[in-house]
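Changelog note: in this version the structure field was regenerated for every chain. One regenerated record is shown below for reference.
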Amino acid sequence: MIEPIFHQLQLAIHSLLALCDKLTAEDLAYRPQERSRSIREQLAHLSLICLADLHIAQEASQQEMDNFYASHPMKTLTEIKESMRTTYSALYDAYISLTPAQLLEEQTSYWGVTYSRYGWLLEIFGHIYHHRGQLQAQLSAKGVEMQGIIWFE
């Protein structure tokens, strides 16, 4: 039931890792708009989504989430890439052994949204793909060559 979701998440992570290998220091510093994240900041955010959103789905408080983000600064592309791999693995490990009944158990975020664990997994999937698409569009508009990256199967 959840294996196809993880397959697509893994595809998204692999495409982001491939994208990282194509970026220059200038690309990483690029900020599409004055108030937006730089490409490096977007990649750092993407690298934490699997684990951060898992914590949210496990009913972490806002303070716990603030502490989580503060304790995971991403400075280098190497750190970002490693974080993408390890946070995906943590999400996979947390979900793969859940029973169908456990996947249907509801959990509530600190801001009051309630989903089943399965619903939270779909939210995580959407969050990754949203930011990946945003990043792809911004880099494409900047003229970054992305040929050879597998975005979809």
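Spot check on this record: Residues 13-23+37-142 form a domain with the Four Helix Bundle (Hemerythrin (Met), subunit A) fold (CATH 1.20.120.450). The chain has a mean pLDDT of 96.
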